[in-house]
Amino acid sequence: MNRSSKQIIKIIVFVVAVVVVSFLIIKLPAMLRKTKITRSGKETFAPLFSVKSINYPGRIISLKKLRGKIVLVNFWATWCPPCRHEIPRLEKFYKAHKKDGFTIIGLSVNDQGSGYVEKFIKTFKGGIITYPVGMANYGVEKAYGNVYEIPQSFLINRQGIVVVHFTGELPPGFLSYEFTKADKLI
Q: Which residues are 75's β-sheet partners?
């Protein structure tokens, strides 16, 4: 093997190594992130809370007042790519099933405050978010197990029991499947 062939092989090996390392740097965190679905054998009532609505001024979002409905409590933030990615699916499901006694409560964990979140709601994809959104506070986050990762969702049945706790972006079809199961738990 001559000298130029060895140099070409070294360059190829170097380029392949750079591509592999780049892939690992970009994709490894997502691959290692654990998506957690918790289904407890015991009945756990959802912690009650009341927060001011951001997108419905003057309205209070109260979990207690939603007893009898299936509720998805979704912790999210404007800066979170998986949160932003799941919003259109959440909105579509909300619109399709609110007549069936389903609602979503979006609880933002943004540090920028409700004004920033309000602007996001009005401008994100033409203002598609119509389900109630409020600001999560320390008490609500703590009551729901210290929300350290987002998005994080809790599906609550009509009796107020958490039937599914999901960490990560809700995959397509997941909410429909879980809603059907929760609706049968009457």
A: 107, 152
The Cα 89–Cα 173 span in angstroms is 9
DSSP reduced 3-state for 134 = strand
Q: Are 168 and 160 in contact (CB under 8 A)?
A: no
Q: What is the rounded CA–CA span in Å between residue 51 and residue 152?
A: 18
| pTM listed for this prediction | 0.76
What does the alpha-carbon distance between residue 46 and residue 161 come to, in Å, rounded to a whole number? Answer: 6
Q: What is the DSSP letter of 76?
A: E
Helix (H), strand (E) at residue 105: strand 102-108
* pLDDT tens digits, 50-66: 999 999 999 999 999 99
| Residues 8-30, mean pLDDT to the nearest whole number | 70
151 upstream amide cis, omega within 30 of 0: yes
Span 124-161, pLDDT tens digits: 888 889 999 999 999 999 999 989 899 999 999 999 99
Q: Counting beta carbons within 10 angstroms of the beta carbon of residue 90, is it exposed (0 to 12), middle (13 to 18) or buried (19 or more)?
A: buried
Domain 36-184 has CATH 3.40.30.10: yes
**Sequence spans of domains, the chain:** 1-32, 36-184
- Output the average pLDDT for the chain: 86
CA gap 162, 101 in Å, rounded: 16
Tell the residue number behind the tokens 């119509």, with chain if given: 130
